[in-house]
Amino acid sequence: MTKKIVQKVLRYNAVFEPCEEGGFTVTVPKLPGVVTEGDTFEQAAANVKDAIEGYLLVLQEDGENVPEPDAESFTAPIDIDLSKLRFAV
Fold it and tell me: Where are the membrane-spanning stretches (predicted)?
């Protein structure tokens, strides 16, 4: 008999904001208080992954529910061309 390995992956949206001094600040809207940074996108992505894992472990240790993941939702930049809009002066 072979054992079946079940792997569950939770997906949370992370918001990367460029910093004036370089690098990125990262927040996770579904996980209040999760804020991290990194000098590069790759470093910021690794740091936010660690922060999310730590956050979820603390919730588990405290017997609290893990927030539902962002399974269907995602973020995408939307550009608005202001030259096509009329604003009241």
Answer: none
